[in-house]
Design a protein that fits this description.
The protein has 785 residues and is mainly β. Helix content is 6%, strand content 65%.
Amino acid sequence: MMELFRGCLALVLTVGWFGASVAQPLGGRVIDEQGLPVGRAAVKLVAMPDSAILAQAMTDEAGTFSIPAVGSRPGILVVSHLGYRTYRSQPLAVGLVSVGTIVLHTDVTQLAAVSVLGRRPSVTHQVDRMTIDVEGSALTVGNSVLELLERTPGVTSNGEGNFAIQGRQGVQVMINGRATYISGAQLALLLRGMQARDVVKVELMSSPSARQNAEGSGGIINIVTKTNRRSGLGGDAFMRGGHGRRPEYALGGGMNLKTDKWAFQASGSHGRDEEEESSFNERRFGGGPAPSTITRQWEDSRLDPGRNYGLQADVEYAADSSQVFGAGVHWIKGRYQSFADAMMHVLEGGVTRMQQNVTQNRFDEGYNNLTFNARYTRRFDAEGHELTANADYAPHGNDFRNGFHTIYHDGSGQQVGNPAARTNVQDLSNTTYVGSIDYVRPLGAQRKLELGWRATYLWIANAVRNDTLRNGIQWDVDDRTSNRFRYGQHVQAAYGIFSGKWGELEYQAGLRMEYTGTEAEQVTIHSSTRNQYVDLFPNAFLGYPLTEKQKLRLAYSRRIKRPGDHDLNAFRVYADPFNYFEGNPQLAPSKTHALELVHVFDNKFFTTLTLNRSGDAIVSITGPGARVGETLSRPENVGSFTNYGISVLYSARLTGWWEVNQYANLFHNRYEGSSRGATLDNHATSWSANSRHTFQAYRIRMELLGYYHSGMVAGALHTASRYGVDVGIDRSLLADKANVKLACTGLVRNARPQSTASFGSLYTVSDERPDNRRVVLSITYRFGE
């Protein structure tokens, strides 16, 4: 693999050096009347006298540009940017290499138009992704990123860090294009601690290109946070307060500084929230119409409190018009303390109550996530010709201090025996190292070549100690469930993408090769499992215009879902004294073929047909535990998963003050296979809808969001419908320096979402009453440039 990497790197550097050495570029810099750089201005060199375009480029954030040599034809330079009058130079001398500094003057007419028509649409559809713009939305106020994703069109969530796109499970979550490398409960904690107000957009990639990691059988969700694009010194500060069943608050702010060569930004936030929830669970053991045992569990829980902290800093240095260096750090820390009071009834034969158990549960869970990034971009003379390098170092830690105290009673309510207690202490360390090189080379006006390499090293150490109370007085270590677990994963990837146009046909063909090496070590029992494999992940896109307003797109990709460390750790993690989770060291990766056909009409109406098929599907199966009334959940390779469906997206501005985004998805999921001697054949046709309306007039904006998710299947689980209506309003004040937002989430919602599961000899029913109605007031003030 190292030889392959050295060969690719040598090819990239050789091609880049050759492309840079043969050109004699024409350079310059564009500024405005205040002397500030104008980024993203269009620069064209046009021939005289026929105005044919000889070369063109865009200015970077520092206002500089460089366009390639064009021979000996005389020409003039044309520079344009929305909000400025177009600049046209005098005829340029042949062989000129620099035009110096160009000043653009404000065009008052265009600026007036921008305030009405320049607002970007909330939902857009690109060749490999759907993008939802949430920056400034009144409905992000008071929400965490976890809650934001649950309200995103096309996304469904179980609230525990597991997401699906168009019904497809196994989605990888990325932040700013970087994988989180955590999942499940750890990912849920992380997203719960992030403020939705810091998010610019959410990208849904149901069929990603070969440039993206192959991980994620259901696709990729990329969360893009805010970055500084303003010149000069400025910043903002915010504070918010809200109330559901219990109160919450958050405050924070940021600063940015941008000069000709330097760009710096830093932001931070702190939040505190409390919640109250309740649930009911019934479990029927033995199967058939007359179960041998039934347990019924009622639980009231409260979060008291949850605290989160966030800090982000980034710096960029533009050495010249062709080179940019950058570095950043992102820190998210949180601690959640919750308490639960539960009562469980145990009935034999489904009729006779034999036990009444009362349990007090205490959870103290924390996480500390850091990401350090260093990057370099080298732009060559041609537009789009560049080399980028990235390095990430991401240490992540979780700690759990949980306790369970149970008092047993007989069927009449009399206490029997001594109280039982258990403590569960976990320390999880997760460290990730990532290095990547990406190279893009235009091949003429119609074609493009992309090459890249990425190496990922993931190291995990997990120590679990379970203590039990014996005879009500003495604590003993539970050697059967206490353990130390280590996990290492090494992925080397190389990819190539060739894209272009052949007449009216747009095409892209890509191939990604990934080598994976893993080792899972149960230190306590001196057992380890190693695995190595190489996989190829092709992808392809085709686009063809049927008419001036209609276009077809066809996409294919192959994806993989690798078992995570928590999936492979065979020792127990307790949710409460009667329900626990175990990993499965024998899990195999699951691979998916995804096919997608998109019809686009007038760039407003998008219809998508999808077909996905997975083998060795990884499913969490719940069955009877070691003792009567206990349940054990464990991931299994059950067989196959099939998903097909159709979705419709309509996004348009109906008037100058009314924008609508309508999304509907109809899909069918089917899980087929067997596990633990039982057969699984769970299938259902489901649908979801998301309707967002934005009204804007007189500096007042109102947003109305309604969503509905019908019942769907996930493994052996069948969830009931979920729905809700959110409303928000915001008003700009003090010459748009200040903004006030008032939002109500869950104004209308189903208060008791349910789920059922049937597998083998166990049937379960779950009824929840989440704390999902909240009123929040937020004030933001911007200062400086």
